[in-house]
Inverse folding.
């Protein structure tokens, strides 16, 4: 009688079924806690752990220098730079309204430190079709260590609302 | 059963009371007026939010693609605010006054303050709606800086929150005074305990919201130079997700209440159910960290600890309720003699009662779709696959819409005859309303989840990327899922319209005392 | 009370919550299997 005051002595031991279910649920919770370490060591993919503070101006300077150094072409009406870092593991990606810059050409099996940051509002790094998603904030240089394992073209979209042209924001990473 | 206080207990009090002929509960007239005003305002917010839901739902359906991009984002912001904040909190305010005053046979403490709280919430809600529709706050419910909204948006948000804090304080004060004046015997009913849980969580949740929103307002007013987006996200989600635990606790209190009202269910173990509520208070705030798993700037240890230890213990609370409520219904039905087989009790349950249908659908949608799809997001590796995709939207529509909203709707059918004292309007459609709404929301949520699993982003006007400089092609199945979500939206909106028609129609029915607990016979 | 269920207060509910449990486990492990095939981000 959940809407009326309970009987005076409601502090009673659990019945057999309650004990069984609470026991299973509690064991599961403990198991899932230890599985956090399990996921980490068994998986081939984990959350990036490195980030540092940086001003948007500093980040733009670093990314512009990277693009100038390794630019191999341009694409589209707004001439989005295409960059092949040719073995340099430190690579930069800029999120801004409403474009991912530059288009990156990477080598499969090679280890990279991908720097991602925004120079205006928050953005969502969303790599398709493998569906890897990260939150990108201005003022934080997010450093993703990864080794692309499969060749092909990967699309980048933005999945954090970044004002009115949000749906126009795309980019590309090519793995060769 | 009901402890009916003797009439002279109330002598000398300025409050007026009536005795409900069906439940024999004493009803404080001042509380009753507040319940009615808050509930009606909640339904106005639901109507606004539902109208926006239809328009944005038809926009995300690629073959319809109704709104322009600016209006899509604008109405999406307004939809989030009206549904997730205004509808929920106004209804919960009504629920808190109901729990503290009517279920405890008590008098409402601070009636004037309660009206001040109502006024603050109303002014806040009107301001926010106006500013959004005026195009001054296209920032979504989360309003992440450095995205800029008009300062009036934050002021409206904060005014509403101050009103909500007052409601929680009045609720707690009313319980304390009721205890002191011995308005009820022994412990408070489980439903009130659940509402108290909701109020306690609401207080620290709103405090966290204030820590996020007040500096943001100061930044927008030019008083402080910048608002750190990482800091905002930590404190905002201490509000944004914990607030859903307020809705959850209120919903579970209502689940227990409807189970009692419809089949006379008695919690299998009071102690266990109460512990489950306490788990929410203790752990959910830390568990909110799962919103930040793929954020830069937070240490792995922080992310791991908060989403594992803390979240699993809150989940344990939910697993307990997931057993405790159906078990209470099953025991009550078996005690009535429906003992055939494993599920004879369920088949013979009162499926003609709209409240019961709402309860079962709400529990099924929350329990099998909304809850589990959310729990797995606490694992970092899986969060990486889901963050900000439409999968998130699918998850929380199955919790807060298919679960909480549907439960609130079911409860309304008892509140109208018993508190508003008017018979239900359009009785023949009442029984269909939970079905239409529930199936619509479930279809929509599943479709959103699937679309998100295949990469569809949330809060997005055009997943075909037609005008993007670099073309993007999402998998071909996408169109199917998006269409299915559109159809689900249409069904859910139909159910929503039925609900609003029933509620508004009932307001114009001739006033009379309820004759039965069952809303269709009252 | 029917003989089959003697001693069990709510056997039907027990079945339902076990289904729920299996479903949650499936969501965790099923998702995770998909995940381990994606990019090598360590």
């Amino acid at each position: 009688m959940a809407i009326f005051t309970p009987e005076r002595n409601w502090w009673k031991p659990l019945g057999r079924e309650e004990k069984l279910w609470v026991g299973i649920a509690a064991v599961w919770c403990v198991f899932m806690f230890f599985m956090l370490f399990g996921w980490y060591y068994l998986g081939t993919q984990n959350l990036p752990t490195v980030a540092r503070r940086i001003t948007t101006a500093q980040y733009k300077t670093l990314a512009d220098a990277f693009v100038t150094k390794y630019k191999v072409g341009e694409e589209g009406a707004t001439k989005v730079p295409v960059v092949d870092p040719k073995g340099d593991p430190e690579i930069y990606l800029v999120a801004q309204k409403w474009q991912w810059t530059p288009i990156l050409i990477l080598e499969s099996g090679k280890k990279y430190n991908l720097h991602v940051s925004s120079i205006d509002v928050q953005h969502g790094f969303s790599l398709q079709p493998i569906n890897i998603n990260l939150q990108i904030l201005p003022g934080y240089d997010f450093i993703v260590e990864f080794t692309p394992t499969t060749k092909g073209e990967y699309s980048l979209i933005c999945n954090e609302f970044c004002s009115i042209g949000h749906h126009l924001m795309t980019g590309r990473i090519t793995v060769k | 059963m009901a402890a009916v206080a003797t009439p002279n207990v109330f002598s000398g009090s300025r409050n007026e009371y009536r005795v409900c002929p069906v439940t024999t509960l004493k009803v404080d007239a001042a509380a009753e007026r507040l319940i009615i005003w808050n509930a009606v305002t909640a339904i106005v917010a639901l109507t606004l939010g539902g109208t926006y839901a239809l328009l944005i739902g038809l926009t995300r359906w690629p073959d319809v693609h109704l709104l322009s991009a600016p209006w899509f984002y604008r109405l999406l912001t307004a939809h989030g605010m009206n549904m997730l904040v205004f509808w929920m909190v106004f209804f919960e305010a009504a629920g808190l006054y109901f729990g503290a005053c009517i279920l405890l046979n008590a008098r409402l403490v601070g009636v004037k303050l309660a009206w001040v709280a109502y006024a603050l919430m109303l002014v806040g809600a009107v301001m926010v709606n106006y500013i959004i529709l005026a195009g001054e706050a296209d920032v979504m419910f989360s309003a992440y800086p450095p995205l800029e909204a008009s300062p009036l948006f934050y002021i409206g948000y904060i005014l509403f929150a101050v009103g909500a804090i007052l409601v929680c304080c009045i609720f707690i004060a009313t319980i304390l005074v009721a205890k002191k004046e011995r308005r009820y015997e022994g412990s408070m009913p489980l439903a009130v305990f659940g509402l108290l849980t909701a109020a306690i969580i609401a207080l620290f949740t709103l405090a966290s919201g204030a820590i996020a929103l007040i500096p943001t307002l100061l930044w927008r007013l030019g008083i402080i130079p910048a608002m750190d987006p990482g800091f905002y996200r930590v404190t905002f989600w201490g509000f944004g997700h914990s607030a859903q635990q307020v809705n959850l606790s209120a919903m579970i209190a209502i689940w227990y209440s409807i189970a009692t009202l419809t089949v006379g269910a008695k919690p299998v173990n009071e102690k266990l159910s109460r512990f489950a509520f306490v788990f929410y208070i203790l752990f959910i705030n830390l568990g909110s960290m799962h919103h930040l798993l793929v954020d830069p700037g937070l240490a792995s240890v922080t992310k791991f600890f908060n989403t594992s230890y803390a979240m699993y213990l809150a989940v344990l609370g939910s697993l307990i309720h997931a057993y405790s409520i159906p078990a209470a219904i099953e025991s009550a039905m078996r005690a009535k003699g429906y003992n055939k087989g494993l599920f004879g009790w369920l088949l013979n349950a009162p499926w003609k009662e709209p409240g019961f249908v709402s309860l079962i659908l709400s529990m099924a949608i929350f329990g099998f779709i909304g809850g589990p799809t959310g729990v797995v997001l606490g694992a970092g590796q899986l969060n990486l696959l889901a963050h900000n995709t439409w999968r998130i939207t699918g998850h929380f529509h199955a919790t807060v819409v298919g679960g909480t909203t549907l439960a609130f709707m079911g409860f309304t059918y008892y509140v109208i005859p018993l508190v508003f004292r008017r018979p239900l309007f359009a009785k023949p459609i009442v029984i269909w309303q939970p079905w239409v709404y529930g199936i619509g929301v479930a279809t929509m949520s599943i479709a959103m989840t699937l679309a998100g699993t295949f990469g569809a982003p949330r809060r997005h006007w055009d997943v075909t990327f037609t005008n993007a400089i670099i073309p993007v092609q999402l998998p071909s199945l996408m169109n199917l899922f998006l269409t299915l979500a559109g159809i689900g939206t249409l069904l859910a909106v139909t159910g929503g319209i039925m609900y609003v028609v029933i509620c508004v129609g009932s307001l114009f029915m001739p006033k009379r005392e309820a004759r039965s607990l069952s809303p269709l016979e009252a | 009370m029917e003989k089959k269920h003697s001693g069990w207060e709510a056997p039907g509910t027990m079945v339902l919550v076990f289904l729920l449990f299996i479903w949650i486990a499936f969501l965790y492990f099923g998702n995770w299997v998909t995940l381990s095939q994606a990019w090598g981000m360590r």
